[in-house]
Amino acid sequence: MNSNVASVKLVLLGEAAVGKSSIVVRFVSNDFSENKEPTIGAAFLTQRVNIDDHTIKFEIWDTAGQERFASLAPMYYRNAQAALIVYDVTKPQSFIKARHWVKELHEQASGDIVIALAGNKVDLIEENGENERKVATEEGQKLADEENLLFFETSAKTGYNVNEIFLAVGDKIPLKRPNDNANENGSGNNQNSSRVQLTDANANAANAGNCSC
Amino acid sequence: MSFLGSLRQKATFIDKIAESFLPSLTRDEKFKLEYRLPDEELIVDDINADLSFVGAHSKLREIQNHRTKEQNVGAYVFSGRLYLTKHFLVFRDAFDKKSCVLLLNLSTIKRVERTPSEANNFSLTLTLYTGSEVLIQLMGLKYKSEQFSAQLKLHLKENIENARKLPQFLNTCYSEFILNKNIMHKTDLIPPKSGLGQQFKYPGNPSMEKEKLKLRLWFDYFKENGENMGIVKNHIFHKLVRVGLPNRIRGEIWELCSGAMYLRYANAGEYQQILEENQGKTSQATDEIEKDLKRSLPEYKAYQTSEGLNRLRNVLTVYSWKNPDVGYCQAMNIVVAGLLIYMTEEQAFWCLYNLCDVYVPGYYSKTMYGTLLDQKVFEYFVEDKIPVLWEHIQKQDIQLSIVSLPWFLSLFFTSMPLEFSFRIMDIFFLNGSRTLFQVSLAILKVNGDALLASEEDGTFIAVLKNYFQTLGDSAYPDSDDPKLRSITKFQQLLVTAFKEFNVITSQIISQQRHKFEKEITLNIETFVKKTQIRQMPKTFYLHSTDLSNIYDIYYQSIETYNISLGKGSSSMNYDVFVQFLGKFCDWCKPCEADNDSRFVEQKNEFLKKLFNYWDTNDSGELTLNNVVAGLDKLKTDDLLIMINNFFNLYDKDGDGELHREEVLALSEGLLFLTEPWRSGRYVDVLTKTAIENEIADRIVEQKAQEEDGDDTIELPNDVEVNEEKYKNEQSERYLKAASNFLQRSIEYARSVDLPSDFNLIELSDDETGGSSESTDAIKKKNLNTLKANAALDPTHPKRLDMATFRMIILADETYELFFSETWRCSTHVNKLIDTDNTRGKALRGMFDGFMADGRKVAKQVRIRVDSVATTRSRGDSILSTDTNATSNTPMAKSLSSSTKEDKFEDIDDFTSEQQEERDDLLGNSWVEMDIDDTMIEPERKQVLSRPPMSNSISKDLIEFEA
């Protein structure tokens, strides 16, 4: 195994049809298709990027966006080091959903998770004018500032800011030494090896206790 | 040893079935499930019988026609059981189900004749509309046979109306078309409307010769065994399905196997009706459907046209209206897109209906519990049948569901090339959901070696992806045997699935589902709760445990809603709302006064106002979030806000003033709210303090009588408190407050006609001022009764503004206390509901919920003792004891059983008897009731939470609900 390669598990979350899969496809294969089949459950893709003198291998878990699939999400964001929460700048509801995801991750995911917020589909605004925009850049920025998130407005269609957002995530991830890395891929790590089902999330919640107010 | 070798060794042990018991289905349920009959088809009668089917155009009939009238020549005779339901005659061979299952809709029967035969035989000949004959010999006692045939006759009669639909229905069946075309040699026949494939070609590149051959085989089958609504399914039927259905008839056979055909016949026109009724209507489901239309098998040509998209939209939306509990789930779009290639909209709709109901129950529900459950069951099978691979998956921490979940949820449509997934569908509709498990297991097994070599999710997924893309390739490309070389990977997969994993039966699946059901349900409930609590509005006075309790009480109140199944409405109507509040609000608990019509009127008047006030979106129903926001307001510790909120309830037009009628309504509301205290069921702080003072006085008195040398202070064990006296005092106080309130509010209301009749400016300005001042002022004004009487005169309209209202409330100690504390503290949002607290109630004394605070009493004693200035006073001994709970005991006892004699005991004496008393006390549910009480200081709470009894249970509950 290449000792300069660090694996980063990244999960994509967000409302249905905001362009999660499209962002991944743009990032992984620099491609775009207008009508993609919805993700059923989750999809998994990988992509390597070079940052400075090291390589990061993104292991991307792309999740289904429809509300009822939310109960599956904990299976996918467990142990994630990074999350990309996507909303559609032309759909205010998707921004509300993004807020919920931020909240859920802060409560349930690992404490040092790096979260990035992507306001996708800005190409629609360029195409059809500012009227199309339903979520102001400032609103996104404000949420990002409050919750300590990276923030970009993106377009999977044009590729605008797609690489940038992944690179920014890569930059912010605390790098592990190659040794730790080997450990991560193996099964030695006690904390990570147990399969987290929904039940484990409960245990976390019990610890979280009073912080939901 | 090879992977497969080691597998074979491990996989051959027998299932341990005995340990789990089956979910109990009734005979009727089993029967309907087995033959995929609609819900209404209950067994009317059943009997043993011998049966032969002679197809109208069968070879046998041809032979017969050339002979004389002799019947029964050479026909197969099956022995089995015959069932009659409302619309069906079902026969199944007793020995081998696959050798003969007859499914006959009564509408297909043209004539029934009783065949003359030997004395004891009871024979019937049914002639079908096609000319086919079913010969039945009923076996059994004569009266049973008579009874059965009488029932048959009756049901045939009742079915006459229904049978009229048959000819039209048959026009939609492809089987009728090919029979007519090839037997009658009609050349001008138009094939019935079918799926999109008719127009846009079928996926894959089926060779015409092969299709024709397959169709021919079905044609022959129909001739011998009947078709669509009256068909015998034998082993050839199963075989023909297994080799893959010809595209043109695929839709009909799917429909037939799934039982959707029977639904379509029974509910003719319903699809069209729902479609038309809901034209133009939108819902969350239709919005979601719209988003996904173009994302459903987008490579298939038809779904790039409006024709294809329209059909897809229609079927999905009609289903979402038909079954709003499911609505629309992603993956349904793909499944329906698949169905519509072979089926008309109506066919696809009923097929989807049965699919969601019978084949993959709960998969697409709002919580997707079926999906989660079957993933769990699948994991169990992998562990059980392919343990080596399971070990590997565990060790490498590979998320199996990321590959398997889409297989189950979209029935392989998104995983493998369509032509292969349709082949799997053929078998799936015939054999049910076990097919999904069998094929999924086979996929893992066939790829076992490669999967064992992959160390992470990425390669695991890549192996399978590659496999699916090459399903059409040879499974043994390197073999010398050309026959072996010609076997495709897909064929190999089917063989593995249906031979090797034949052990996965429907029965075993239901057992396993049953086993994991509870776990999944619990997980979902926990998850849903966490999510909902997270998405609640921001609250200021309710804390996380309160929210958790409110959530529980809320859903306990809405009985029709099933959280884990995601079924039913999750909103609350007014009646449920009243019950809901009654569960944890002292002021809304069912009580004796509920028999009093005036009280009930007051209650409904107030609660309806509250309900509407909380219903911020005017929907006529409250959501959980409405309720949380409303309760948060009720729990505010800001006296003025509390008063304002109450005022606003009655200020309909929001102009900050109440009219005379509104003032009267408001005072009625107050009467309702304060009833529990007025009637003495609960005590407020004023009464409580008075009781404590009395006890303290007595201790001091007692002490004074004792010897000088004694330097401990004893709390009385049993104090006789004159309950009646305190109850009356409190009642009087509340009555007085109520009458004062009414009087004052009329007196101080601003007169609309006579604005400066008398001076009240100084009063209304003095909102927050000391109550002594205002009471003085009020007393003065009280003298002016003449003016007050004038105010009651309706010809002089008056208005009460918020400031005045506040002043009036603040002027009365009881009402002020009510708004600052009594009301808020009697809304027990932090109380877990104890469903079994009726026993505890019976034990309670009249002053329900009262608990004297030992510390307070001790403090009072101390003050008194100090003020007496006895230098020997060493009251510390009381304060230093950490036995507050113990010191409570006598108090509580005295209140619940006033007949006991006074008796004094050393509080340091922890006798076992006292311990029992304490446990008794803490085990009693009314202890829980008061934990909330702010009058209780934190130290007490600690003591209360320490004993193991009821508190440990509630603690567990909290963890489980967090």
Automatic annotation (TrEMBL), chain A:
Biological process according to GO: endocytosis; Golgi to endosome transport; late endosome to vacuole transport via multivesicular body sorting pathway; multivesicular body assembly; protein localization to endosome; protein targeting to vacuole; reticulophagy; vacuole inheritance
Entry superkingdom: Eukaryota
Region (Disordered), start-end ranges: 176-195
UniProt KW rRNA-binding keyword: no
Compositionally skewed regions (Low complexity) per UniProt: 180-194
Gene transcribed to yield this protein: TPHA0P00950
Taxonomic classification: Eukaryota, Fungi, Dikarya, Ascomycota, Saccharomycotina
CC per GO annotation: cytosol; early endosome; late endosome
Gene Ontology terms, MF aspect: GTP binding; GTPase activity
Protein name: Vacuolar protein sorting-associated protein 21
NCBIfam families on file: small_GTP (TIGR00231)
Record key words, sorted: Nucleotide-binding
UniProtKB/TrEMBL annotation, chain B:
SMART domains assigned to the protein according to its UniProt record, in alphabetical order: EFh, GRAM, TBC
The EF-hand domain, residue ranges: 602-637, 638-673
Cellular compartments per GO CC: cytoplasm; mating projection tip
Bias-annotated ranges (Polar residues): 874-898
Record protein name field: Rab-GAP TBC domain-containing protein
Residue intervals passing through the bilayer: none
Species of origin: Tetrapisispora phaffii (strain ATCC 24235 / CBS 4417 / NBRC 1672 / NRRL Y-8282 / UCD 70-5)
Annotated region described as Disordered, given as residue ranges: 874-904, 938-962
Keyword Nucleotide-binding: no
Keyword vocabulary terms for this entry: GTPase activation
